[in-house]
Amino acid sequence: MRNIQDLKKDEQDILSLKRRSKVVFAFLFILILASIFKIFQLTVLEKANYSVESEKNRIIEVPIFPSRGLITLEDGTIIAENIVTQGIFIQGSLLESSKDQLDILYRDVLDLERKFPVPQTTKQNQKIWLARDLSSKELAKYEFHKNSLSNVKLGISLRRYLPHKNLFSHVIGHLGPITSDERLSLSKTDYPVDAFIGKVGIEKVYEKSLKGSVGKSIIEVDVYGNKIREIERIDPERPQNITLSLNFKLQKIAREELGGRRGAVVALDPNTGMIKALVSSPDYNPNILNGSEKGILVKDSSKEEAPFFNRAISGSYPPASTIKPFIGLLGLEENIINESTIVEDVGFFQLKEDGRKYRGWKEDGHGRVNLNKAIVESSDVYFYQLASQLTIDRISNFLSKFGFGMISGIDLYNESKSILPTRNWKLGNIGEAWFVGDTINIGIGQGYITSTPIQLAVSVSAIATRGTIFRPKLIISNQDSKKPEIFKKVQIGNEKHWDSIEKSMISVINSWNGTAHNLYEEDGILIAGKTGTAQIKSLVDQELTVREEYEGVRQNIQDRDHALFASYGPVPNPNLVVIVIVENGESGSAVAAPIAKKLIEQNQINLAE
Amino acid sequence: MSNRNPLDYSLNRPLSSGYNPIRYLFKDVILYFCLLSILIFGLAMLYSSSGQSVAMVIRQSVYVFFGLVLMTFISHLKPDSYKNILMHSYWVGLLLLIYVLVFPASGYSTSRWIDFGFFSFQPSEIIRLILPLSLIAYLCRKESAIQLSDWFSTTLAAFICAYLVFEQPDLGTSIIVFTSGLIPIYLAGLPYKIILVYLGSAALAAPFIWANLLDYQKQRVLTYFDNNVDPLGDGWNIAQSKTAIGSGGFFGKGYLEGTQSQLNFLPESHSDFIFSVVGEEFGLLGILILFFIYTLIIWRIFKIGFEARSNFERLACSSLGFIFLLFILINVSMVIGIIPVVGVPLPLISQGGTSIVVHLLAFGVILSAKKPYL
Fold first, then answer.
1. Is the reported ipTM for this assembly greater than 0.90?
2. Residue A474 DSSP SS3
3. Quick one: how far is CA B254 from the chain centroid?
4. Residue A420 shares a structural domain with residue A348
């Protein structure tokens, strides 16, 4: 039974409960207000930001890289292509949780020689390559352990492959992982962190056109990076293939003839500037750097020979006696000599009676020498005298017209500038005034003057074309293949002087006393050439006798002279200029000249086909 | 209301208004209808947030059905008949809490779970609701006024449960368990003098408690202050959750169209973070409708409570009403990033059988306080 007292107590309890409920509710009301305000803020005020965030989460752009442009020769031979290699990657989001699998991968699957960089998570939706370019052995091991490696996946990547390996190494060059410096100026989508980029050679110079433009696929992904669907696709622009002017046979012969000795061969068509062969020796296999082949890049023993150094465009050598035709031409032009001017070569030259003796290579001298004989027998004394009369100013001025002291502008990376000294040059670089003795040395291509093989080829082509020098070029592009670019035009006063110089250069081979008479064949192709022997140790004022210098093979190979041969043929209508340099080859005629002859002959066969 | 004459109370008993089986079975039709709609909505959200897993929805439906049967059954009992059972259920809860500490289930980093193979549950989920009910039952066990010692013993009982949860270790839940114990004690009339004593001693003990927090517990509290420091930890969850709700805008992206949840960017989207899925797929509008139904439920709870006849019924209803509101608020504030991450599901919607069944059991107790329509 409820009585009034109970009811009163109830009433009090309810009042107390309601009062206390209000207190509790007041506390919770703070949270209610805060929540409602925050929800309003999220869904109304900041909706736009969060929509962007949400889209960024699910929509990613995957670049589609076009396969790198092929490099071919004119006859269609492919000399640089792309092959597929396999690698192992992991999604960035799974990296944290896959430490065990990575251990298995590194321990049981991958070769121990591999370096294992600790992968850094940068972006959640990014592929992280753990290993690239797997060997077949690694692939087999991966298949075997596949079940315990659920998070790491196989992926393919394209790698540059040169089917002829070393043959075109110094022309095509190689690719390598992009450096952070290189990336600074490039588009981040075109070049991701793990991109490869042309490092040298054609691959570098024509990187842009070989690369093509990157397309993209816009895809929806889940948090694990799995593709849900493709939303949009922009196809990449395929790069154009590049055709080079090189001739496969000439290139192959040049490389084989050098046979791994340090040296270089440059052969070009003087009528167009197109390079037909460009070999620097020793060379390397670019595929190993490209990641398309495994193996040892360079033997330890050949490291000192600088196999990555492109001697054909970057090697600086004294032009030595190959400069004599140019000096002779200048003498004729300046009327200091004519064809019948005689100099008495007694084996040395002195400016004054009691002056320093400049020795010729032949101890006893060549006797009475005119210009023709001076070139054919390579009389040093003749050109000592001629140079001393010409003065350095005239020599520099004249040689620069032929491209001496310049870069030829061939479409390769890292061409060195040859040195054509002047009075100012010496003052600036050596810090001394110019002496007549310096000019005398220049007369035989020694002293301060240097040439690169490509520059020498360009200069010699002026004689072959009677003054027109075309810009040397490797690539045959569609646009300007018809019109070769003229690099320089040499104007001389008397056109007949070309003929007399050429005649002498032919006699270097054809005359019994020519320095390259060993090349002579009856009914053979007419070749104009000039041997050169670049001295490494100075002849002047040495203890050794001239005979010892020249005829005794020096014990130290490094001290031997560089053998040079500059030539073109066939005469008339020459179509190939060949420069051969064999470092420490000692004799231009015996070592360098036969290579040039083979190339000129082969070029004739090629053209006849 | 205070101007009502107490005598009216007996006179105003509803006279026979005709027998209505639905009113008889459901007791409070509005509350029952609201509960049903929330539960069905919850199943639909579960389908969306679980990667459209039918199996998970069926499993949850079984719990919902079992919970509804239990609720309806309890609602027809007289509170006096189960009051004693409720009071002693405290010991069951306590045993479960001790059990998880002594025999932690394998496969979990913390000892929060009891695993029976076919189903597993967290005792803390049960204790959150059992504790207040048992405390009220204890305080109202006698007709006479509550004695001074009862205040201390009930506070101690709540503190023991909270401490056991803290040892699991689970700081957030521990605080929630303690709060859900304190609410009924306060509502029952805990004298303000004792409250002052409690606050004073808590202030003295605070530095000691902080020194004893585990690193990850400190971490949880600290990350709250800067979500950008640790985008893959709790901060990442919150950032993704806010992105989901914010990108939903006013109208939402549409059912099953929420990219954050469907593509798994939203972690725990079917359990603690299911509210974000509601926000993403139904927008602010959906959230407001959900809140409206929750408000209706709470309004009914207090209405039943204030109309109830015994002090036990009144206290049970108002305590459970506040605890229900508290859980909703904690879950929502956690998901939108205004309080640190704690493991509280969204009541009646988040995946989890234990939570659903215990909540429905509590609603059974609430409904039983309503006078039957006869």
1. no
2. coil
3. 28
4. yes
Given this model, what pLDDT does residue A544 score? Answer: 47
The reply to whether A297 falls in a domain is no
> How much is the pLDDT for B122?
84
> Does the pLDDT at position B10 exceed 60?
no
pLDDT band at A553 (very low <50, low <70, confident <90, very high): very low
Q: Is A54 a catalytic residue?
A: no
Model confidence at A164, in pLDDT bands (50, 70, 90)? very high
Say what the pLDDT of residue A211 is: 87
User: What CATH number has the domain bearing residue A471?
Assistant: 3.40.710.10
Residues A340 and A200 both lie in one domain: no
Q: Check CB contact under 8 Å for B247 and A222.
A: no
Residues of B in contact with A220 (CB under 8 A): 259, 263
Mean per-residue pLDDT over chain B, rounded: 86
Mean pLDDT, chain A, rounded, equals: 86
Q: How far apart are CA B241 and CA B221, in angstroms?
A: 18
Question: How do residues A211-252 score in pLDDT, each as one tens digit?
Answer: 888 888 888 888 777 788 888 888 888 888 899 999 999 999
Q: How many independent structural domains does chain A possess?
A: 2
Query: Which among B6, B232, B287 has the least Cβ separation from residue A4?
Result: B6
Quick check: A372 and A500 in contact, CB under 8 A? yes
User: What integer pLDDT is reported at residue B181 of this predicted model?
Assistant: 94
Q: Which of A93, A98, A292, A321 is catalytic?
A: A321
Q: Nearest residue of A to residue B243 by CA position?
A: A50
Whether A227 is in a domain gets the answer yes
Residue A552: the pLDDT is 47
| CB proximity A35 to B under 8 Å | yes
Final residue of a domain: which of A244, A271, A304? A244
What residues of chain B lie within 8 A of the CB of A46, using their CB? Answer: 246
CATH classification of the domain holding A225? 3.90.1310.10
**Contact: A17, B232; criterion CB under 8 Å:** no
Q: How far is A300 from chain B (nearest CA, A)?
A: 48
Residues 201-260 of chain A with CB under 8 A from chain B are: 220-224, 228
pTM: 0.67
* Domain carrying residue A524: 248-290+312-580
For residue range B152-198, what is the model confidence (pLDDT) as tens digits? Answer: 999 999 999 998 988 777 777 888 999 999 999 999 999 999 999 99
Question: How close does chain A come to B362, measured CA to CA in Å?
Answer: 19
- Per-residue pLDDT averaged across A450-473, rounded? 94
3-state secondary structure A334-398: CCCCCCCCCEEECCEEECCCCCCEEECCCCCCCEEECHHHHHHCCCHHHHHHHHHHHHHHHHHHH
Model pLDDT for residues B71-83, shown as the tens digit of each residue: 999 999 988 889 9
Structure tokens given for B216: 């990850």
Specify whether A219 is located in the same domain as A276: no
Question: Cα(B197)–Cα(A369) distance, rounded to whole angstroms?
Answer: 126
Query: Is residue A345, in this structure, part of any structural domain at all?
Result: yes
Q: Who has greater pLDDT, A230 or A553?
A: A230
User: Does residue A256 sit in the same domain as residue A273?
Assistant: yes
